[in-house]
Design brief:
By secondary structure, this protein is an alpha+beta fold. The chain contains three helices and five strands, in the order ααβββββα. Helix 2 packs across helix 3. This is YdhG-like domain-containing protein.
Length: 122
């Protein structure tokens, strides 16, 4: 279980208003993100949960049918993304679209989150 005081109330509120299936996915992803490093800071900005460490690392963007686990420097993560999960064509941001619980791969996601943190150390 993740240290409760690392979770911000705005994110709790945001999640509580989501449809159940999307809520389940969001909660699972939030746990993975917070477990991947004690140094990640949770924040609620741009109307979604964001996680930072020496700068922006990742975010959770919800929609009616899926949740995106997004990476602010996703373009720099692509070579580490051996499972080719990252999508998107933006200048820097990439995301993994998750439509159901069994599409969540904690080990893979944790690895990408750690890699994304490492990019902020360079």
């Amino acid at each position: 279980m993740v240290n409760k005081n690392r979770k911000v109330e705005e994110v709790d509120q945001f999640i509580s208003n989501l449809p159940n299936d999307i809520q389940d996915i969001t909660v699972a992803l939030r746990e993975i993100i917070l477990k991947s490093s004690p140094e990640l800071i949770e924040d609620f900005k741009w109307s979604m949960p964001n996680y930072s460490y020496n700068g922006l690392v990742c975010y959770l963007q919800t929609s009616k049918k899926h949740v995106n686990l997004g990476f602010h420097k996703g373009n720099e993560l692509q070579e580490k993304d051996t499972n080719k999960l990252l999508q998107g064509t933006g200048k820097t941001m990439r995301h993994i679209k998750i439509k159901k619980m069994d599409a969540i791969h904690p080990e893979t996601f944790t690895l990408l989150i750690k890699e994304a943190m490492a990019l902020n150390e360079e």
